[in-house]
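Morning. Coffee machine broken again, so started the prediction first thing and wrote up yesterday's gels while waiting. Chain of 189 residues, entered below exactly as on the submission form.
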Amino acid sequence: MAALASGVTPSFAHAQHGGPGLVTPPVRLDDVWLVDQTGKNRRLNDWLRGGITALQTVYTGCGTVCPLQGALFSAVQERLPGIRAPRRVQLQLQLLSIGIDPLSDSPAALRAWLARFEAGPAWNAATPALADVDQMRVTLSGSKTPLGNLADHSTQVYCFDAGATLRWRSADLPRVADVCEVLGALARA
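Came back before lunch.
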């Protein structure tokens, strides 16, 4: 995704509302309150602003694709130290798992989720209020249609720039190298 930084994009990198690739125009999520794994309340855009963020949606009780998503972020986390931003800019690279089942994704469940995948300090988890889940999922997916139940949730990764805008959506269960490449391109942009 070095092309992202240079403004030149390969044909697979263009997304129009929902497809994988660049999100054009970039999208900002509603600034909802999240409760993180420590029980602290935090605004979503405050979390995203000032860093380059890869975000995924999960629910801690999932036994099918969510463990694969956890393993994906674990592998991305291992590569974060090798992703360099220009020296003049010190942007934090961060991973954020958003729990989409607020009735079960408590701070304790989110802590256990992170511990299961040996999350370090650059990887956090949080969940919005129940009333905000569907709108967040719709905005992330770029879909205009209802998304269905939690068991059918997306396995995409969403990458945000330092201005808290969604710039890239992956295909379902993306390759680790693709997520890292996009994070690096956004850090250099």
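The CA atoms of residues 14 and 22 lie 5 Å apart. Going to sketch it on the whiteboard this afternoon.
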